[in-house]
Amino acid sequence: MSDTHPPVTSADDATGVFVEHRELMFGVVYNILGSVADSEDVLQETWLSWTARGGGAPLDGVDNPRAYLVRIAVNHALTRRAAISRRRETYVGPWLPEPLVAVDEERGADDPALRTESVSLAMLVVLESLSPLERAVFVLHEVFGYAHTEIAEIIDRSPAAVRQLARRARAHVQARRPLYEAHPRVRREATERFVRAAVGGDIAELMEVLAPDVTVWTDAGGKRKPAALRPVHGRDKALRFFGSYGRKGGAGSLELRYRRVNGDEAVVLFQDGEPYAVLVLDLTPDGDRVSGVYVVSNPDKLTHVPREAA
Length: 310
Description:
By secondary structure, this protein is of the alpha+beta class. The chain has helices spanning 11-33, 36-52, 65-88, 121-127, 132-143, 148-155, 159-176, 184-200, 203-209, 235-247; strands at 210-219, 232-233, 255-261, 264-271, 274-283, 290-296.
C-alpha cells in the first residue's frame, strides 16, 4: 500500500491531497464505525488535524500523505467508537449499522453513493462484536489490504501485536460469518420472493422462503412501529411479526424500490418520497432460503438514503 506524492507545499496542495484520499478514509472509517454520520464527523476532525499540522503552515515533510491521513482518520475513529458505545447503552431495541444505499439499481456497487469498499450489512453486524482494535486491524488488513507492518504504524502497536489482533479477529469473523456469498441474481430473486410474500401476507410462501432458524433484527430506535425490541428468532415468531406488520398497515402506504445496500441486493421502502426503511436479507449457503432479515427504520439512520420523487 505504499504511496508517494510530490512534497506538499501549499494550502491548495494540502486540500487536493485530502480530497484525493477522502473516499479511502471514509471507507476505512465507515467500516470501523458502521455509521455514515459519525464517519463524516471523523473526516471533518481529520481535516482539522491535517490543516492544523505545523500551525497551519505549508504542509511539507510528509513523505506519504495517504498513510499519514489514514493514521489520523483511524485514530479519530477509534476515539469515536467509545462515544458510539456509550450511546448504544441507552439505545432502544436492536442496533444495526447505518446502511449505504446506491442511487439506483443499475449503477450498483460502483456507485459513489456506496463509497469505498463497504462490506455487507451482515458483515458489519459481525464486526460489532470485535474489540475496536480488532475491528480496525480486520478492516485495514482484510478489506483494504494493508500489511501488518503498515497497520502497526497506524495504530501504534508492534507488528507482533497486530498479527495477534488479526488472528483473533479473523477467527471470530469466520466462526460467525460463512465465507459463502450469494450471487447477485440469486440474492435479487430471493429478495423479490420474500417481499412479495411479506407484503401480500402469503403465509404459505413465507414458510417456504424463511429458514427454520431465521432471525429478524428491526432497528427503529424507538421511533417507528411496529418494531421488535429484541431480535426475533425462529420462523414461527418471524411469521407472527410480519403478519402483525401487515395487519397494522405497515406496508400499505409504502412504495418499494430495489436497490443495492452496502453492495448487496436489497429493498428500500419509501413513504411520500421519504425513506421509511431499508431491508436487507441474509441467505442460507445454498441461497434458497432467508436466514436473516435486517430492517433499519430509525429515521436518524436514513438521512443519507437518496430520496425519491413524491
